[in-house]
Design brief:
Helix content is 42%, strand content 15%. The chain is of the alpha/beta class. The strands form three sheets. An eight-stranded parallel barrel has the order 1-2-3-4-6-8-9-12, surrounded by four helices. Helix 2 (45-58) links the parallel strand 2 (27-31) and strand 3. The radius of gyration is 18 Å and the shape is globular. It binds zinc ion (2 copies). Residues 143, 178, 214, 259 line the site of one zinc ion (ZN). One zinc ion is lined by residues 143, 178, 214, 259.
Length: 289
């Protein structure tokens, strides 16, 4: 499992690769534009080309693009919903230009007027975005949430419901597991059997294995619905919990990305190295850290 970090691109895309290498990343995640804005100018093809060249030169594993936080495909507001599927289409096109393998998105909030229609509303938005983007080289991963407030996509059941309702986008769509979100939503990932349950659930409900992991420890306890990331081993999932991430063969080869609060560059180098130690330990005769 390649291990990497979410890396800022304010200093340039190619430069972000250099930073990722310096932090020990084997794969990386970026934003395709400011995550808190609807609009941004297109990515300059020369910038994208320099990024792709730098990735190749560095031997960097898969790149993930995380979409803007404004996207809400479950919104009851038709105007916001339209903006959301167009924004998702734009992110998909940015990912293709950048050579990213995966686009990771949150699905949005529950459809206010009729919550039971949320999955269908989101699926329709995803299909529209996919058709609008006309991309072929990226996979679109729906990320689970912390089950806080009115967000949709708490876990395997809800994400699976969306995936099964997809039409054109269905063959290209899957799931990204955020460990902090799952833990906050009620799966106590400090415990090995819960990892099994959760991965079983994704397979059963989504019909596809988990294709990417956001490995974040959790500041608050399991089931508290508080999405506050902690450094690996410093939260309520802990080292023992993250050891299970590397113990399940179903996740072999899946990119693992940390999304850590704190100052660069120490946070990324330190958390990447903590995960690498757990991965190395799981490959040895003893998996206890
Ligand atoms: Zn996310
Ligand atoms: Zn995440």
């Amino acid at each position: 499992m390649p291990i990497g970090a979410h890396v800022g691109v304010a200093g340039g895309y190619a430069e972000a690769v250099d930073y990722a290498v310096s932090a020990g990343c084997e794969c990386m995640q970026v934003f395709g534009k400011s995550p808190r804005q609807w609009q941004a100018k297109p990515i300059d093809p020369a910038v994208a080309e320099a990024f792709r060249e730098r990735l190749t030169a560095a031997g960097m594993g898969p790149v993930l693009l995380h979409t803007a936080y404004l996207i809400n495909l479950g919104s009851s507001d038709d105007g916001l919903w339209e903006r959301s599927h167009r924004a998702l289409a734009d992110e998909l096109m940015r990912a293709e230009i950048l050579g990213a393998s995966f686009v990771v998105t949150h699905t949005g909030t529950r459809f206010k007027d009729a919550p039971e229609r949320t999955a269908a509303r989101i699926a329709e938005g995803v299909d529209r975005a996919w058709a609008e983007a006309g991309v072929t080289g990226v996979r679109l991963l729906l990320e689970n949430t912390a089950a806080a407030g009115s967000t949709f996509g708490d876990g395997p059941d809800e994400l699976g419901a969306v995936l099964h309702l997809l039409d054109g986008a269905r063959p290209y769509a899957g799931v990204c597991l955020d460990t902090c979100h799952a833990h906050a939503a009620g799966w106590d990932l400090a415990r090995g059997p819960v990892w099994q349950e959760l991965l079983d659930g994704f397979e059963r409900c989504c019909g596809t294995p988990v294709e990417a992991v956001h490995a974040n420890d959790c500041l608050f306890g399991a089931g508290m619905h508080k999405d506050r990331h902690a450094w690996i081993g410093d939260g309520t999932i802990g080292y023992e919990g993250f050891a299970h991430l590397f113990a399940d063969g179903r996740l072999d080869g899946v990119p693992v990305i940390i999304e850590m609060p704190g100052e660069v560059p120490v946070k990324d180098a330190e958390n990447v190295s903590r995960l690498k130690r757990l991965r190395d330990a799981s490959a040895g005769p003893s998996s206890h850290v």
